[in-house]
Specification:
This protein has helices spanning 19-30, 46-49, 125-129, 139-153, 178-190, 230-240, 290-298, 385-391, 435-454, 525-545; strands spanning 9-15, 35-38, 79-80, 89-90, 100-101, 195-196, 244-247, 250-257, 263-270, 276-286, 324-331, 351-352, 368-373, 395-402, 411-419, 425-430, 458-459, 508-510. With 548 residues, it is an alpha/beta fold. It has a domain at 1-48 and 101-155 and 229-321 and 417-431 and 481-548: FAD/NAD(P)-binding domain. The strands form 5 sheets. Strands 1, 2, 7, 8, 9, 10 and 18 form a 7-stranded mixed beta sheet that branches. The protein has a 4-stranded antiparallel beta sheet with strand order 13-14-11-17, with helices on one face. Strand 1, helix 1 and strand 2 (35-38) form a beta-alpha-beta unit. Helix 5 packs across helix 9 (435-454).
Length: 548
């Protein structure tokens, strides 16, 4: 749609307030831009709204999950795979789960804080194995931004000198828990790399934020701001400039353009009133999450952009990926009957296993990492009390998280007949794992079983087999969607250039995981943040030069 308006014109309009949008708001506001940020959900402040210290018995629901909070009543993230009035569809016979957050800070209010840099191999996959495509940038282009990110946010870890697991600027890691020491010993026997994990949780006071006190409730919203979330770390300094305005309850409908095809405004629905509004801006930055950003672009049709904004290549919505995932758990007898002790620690794993093998000798082309879990947080009562006391803390699990190869069968498009409660056309998903991912899941399971046996334990139940696709999670279930507006050097095959700037619309940028050309096995948030910082600093410089 082309439209004219006399309303105030901002320098930049950002859609989305999570990792990418929060970083863009900080960098752009501090860089002198007058910024407006649109967030579809409600306001959120972890210090006021979080339930970090709540007990299950504080609520009649006893902490049980709900439609708006499937991970538990006290979870810090408002959203889910099933949002009332906001459907999505899947192609016949296929399954895909799409998680949406509806709150300030988005998914950064609930995630594992696993903060891994993509490595040199991750940016150049095609050059190594002939599959997918290389990124138009490499690790050397990203390293300065990873470094600045480490120093800004803070994370713990250790420098290990591993070729494709880049070292960083780390705070000291917490000591491994008892079961994690067993995991480490077993991994060493099997020659599986096992090192301290890398999480954006502060083990020392950092940049005015307090050190973690190890309550273990990171997913509920940290009242001391000791872990990373956009509302705790990025938005406060952006607001302090006086140049950021945040509009919550603003569901973006489409990006408006002029006769030259340039972005001029964002149309949104005020969710409180149902009325359509717009904000004008010289530059638009989309950071709504990979699929939501694709949806917004595909719904932004005009004479100059008949197939959707920035979609002359037809690549918007294509090359959709998610992280592969499967889990195996085991019973470890040596952990039975231990006396009570506190092993809460940081909210997540203290050790993990980065990829340690050579894919050229395997039947799948890209690697994975393993996230161990366990500990003494299983409740028990009544007649089961004695068994619980004996078994308490003796179950240890291993979750594999791997890289998927983009394929032609995985994409999202606009459903031609379904709209949401705001009248906005919804996405329809197409999804199919390939044999690469199935073989990878099988290997994850076999590796987990070997570690459990080396710990002196046994797999609980049956090892996931081929009849269940080796326990491979559904597409979207790991909540790591990426690639729907991928970067590239050619406007014929990609949506964005190396600066995440649209080939077809020079004042439009994307700052979430949609620009990813490939989706390494590393959790995405650290690369979303670093890439958004890189893009936003480029916008600041281009504005200074008068090019935008």
């Amino acid at each position: 749609m082309q439209i004219a308006s006399r309303a105030k014109e901002y320098d930049v309009c950002i859609v989305g307030s999570g990792a990418g949008g929060g970083m863009a708001a900080k960098v752009l506001a501090e860089g002198g831009a007058d910024v407006v940020l649109l967030e579809a959900g409600q306001w959120w402040d972890a210090a006021k709204d979080g339930a970090m210290m709540a007990w299950a018995y504080d609520s009649p629901r006893r902490g049980a999950g709900s439609r708006r909070k499937p991970f538990g009543e006290f979870d810090g993230c408002i959203g889910g795979w099933d949002l009332e009035g906001e459907p999505y569809t899947t192609a016949d016979g296929q399954r895909f789960l799409w998680w949406r957050a509806r709150m300030l800070g988005g998914r950064t209010n609930h995630w594992g804080r696993i903060s891994l840099r993509f490595g040199p191999h991750d940016f150049k996959g095609r050059s190594r194995d002939g599959l997918g495509d290389d990124w138009p940038i490499g690790y050397d282009d990203m390293k300065p931004y990873y470094d600045k990110l480490d120093e800004l946010v803070g994370l713990f870890g250790t420098n290990e000198g591993l070729e494709n697991e880049p070292d960083g600027i780390f705070l000291p890691p917490p000591a491994p828990r008892a079961y994690e020491r067993l995991v480490k010993n077993a991994s060493d026997k099997l020659k599986i790399t096992c090192i301290p994990s890398r999480l954006s949780i502060l083990t020392k006071a950092h940049n005015g934020r307090a050190a973690c006190h190890y309550c273990g409730q990171c997913g509920r919203g940290c009242k001391t701001r000791s872990n990373f979330s956009s509302p705790s770390v990025l938005l406060p300094p952006a607001l302090a400039t006086g140049r950021l305005k945040i509009l919550t309850g603003a569901m973006a409908r489409e990006v408006l353009t002029n006769d030259e095809g340039r972005a001029t405004a964002v149309s949104y629905v005020d969710t409180a009133t149902g009325k359509t509004q717009e904000v004008r801006a010289k530059i638009v930055v989309l950071a709504a999450s990979a699929c939501e950003t694709a949806r917004l672009l595909l719904n932004s049709k005009s004479t100059r952009h008949p197939d959707g904004l920035a979609n002359s290549s037809g690549a918007v919505g294509r090359y959709l990926t998610d992280t592969t995932g499967t889990s195996v758990q085991g019973h470890i007898p040596i952990l039975e009957g231990l006396p009570p002790y506190n092993d809460d620690g940081a909210g997540g794993m203290h050790v993990y296993m980065p990829w340690w093998l050579d894919n050229r000798r395997l039947d799948f082309p890209r690697g994975y990492h393993i996230e161990p879990w366990g500990g003494r947080d299983m409740p028990g009562y009544g007649k089961l009390k004695d068994d619980y006391r004996r078994l308490y803390g003796s179950i240890v699990g291993f979750s594999g998280r791997g890289e998927m190869i983009p394929n032609k069968d995985c994409y999202c498009e606009i459903d031609p007949s379904v709209v949401d409660r705001h009248g906005i056309p919804v996405l329809r998903f197409h999804w199919k794992w390939s044999d690469y991912e199935l073989n990878q899941a099988r290997h994850m399971n076999e590796t987990a079983a070997r570690v459990i046996e080396a710990m002196g334990g046994k797999v609980v139940g049956r090892l996931p087999g081929k009849d269940k696709d080796y326990g491979l999670k559904l597409g979207g279930e790991i909540i790591h969607e990426a690639g729907t507006t991928r970067m590239g050097t050619s406007p014929r095959t990609s949506v964005l250039n190396e600066w995440c700037q649209a080939h077809d619309c020079k004042n439009l940028f994307v700052a979430d995981s949609a620009p990813f050309v490939s989706n390494a096995h590393k959790n995405m948030t650290w690369t979303i943040l670093a890439l958004s910082m890189r893009t936003s600093e480029h916008i600041v410089e281009e504005r200074r030069k008068g090019n935008l």
